[in-house]
Specification:
By secondary structure, the chain is mainly α. It has eight helices and two strands; from the N terminus they run ααββαααααα.
Length: 187
């Protein structure tokens, strides 16, 4: 089964009014609804926009992490320089803050909003460590390398759920890179 295939649908209930059918309309009127009352299409759209945001934002996290490394392709060596540490730190903090607010305001954009919110709060606390212990700043670069795999995970979801046909080579390439980076970085 392809990643995040959606088969769940919520039938409309008598509590759903014809005037108030979308989350945005409800929010503008000050109406709070539980996510289970929203139709699946709206949840899909919220997830898609969140995925697109992450595909763009994670490029900046990955890029600012990469520029802190001295990479030698000839020797296949990487070493942390930290020359652009503060740019990497600020980019990461801004990403966590924006994504935290997004998930808190539109919880249907992810499967487990509570887990994501806790993760982001803990990650922001962890971001204070390199300030107090500069000798461990390299550890931030090491930990953020996992975002490469996260990017391929999200791209894989987008590729498999797209309504436009994606060439099989692209789908297989993205999937292969997801598994390769998962084994290389996370194991």
């Amino acid at each position: 089964m392809a990643p995040r295939q959606r088969t769940f649908t919520t039938p409309p209930t008598e509590d759903d009014s014809a005037e108030s059918t979308t989350l945005l309309a409800d929010q503008s009127k000050g109406i709070r609804r539980k996510a289970k009352l929203l139709n699946q299409t709206e949840a899909d759209i919220a997830r898609d926009w969140h995925d697109y945001f992450n595909l763009v934002a994670l490029v900046f996290i990955i890029g600012t992490t990469a520029i802190n490394y001295d990479i030698s392709l000839l020797n296949l060596k990487m070493s942390w320089t930290g020359n652009h540490f503060w740019l990497n730190w600020a980019t990461t903090l801004v990403y966590f803050m924006v994504d935290l607010v997004w998930v808190a305001m539109v919880p249907i954009c992810v499967k487990s909003p509570g887990v994501i919110i806790k993760h982001h709060l803990l990650a922001m606390v962890y971001l204070t460590a390199p300030i107090y212990w500069p000798e461990y700043r390299w550890f931030m670069g090491s930990i953020l390398s996992v975002e490469v795999n996260t990017w391929f995970l999200i791209m894989r979801r987008v590729v498999f759920k797209t309504s436009s046909p994606v060439p099989p080579a692209v789908a297989q390439g993205v999937s292969a890179m997801f598994y390769l980076t998962w084994i290389w970085i996370r194991c």
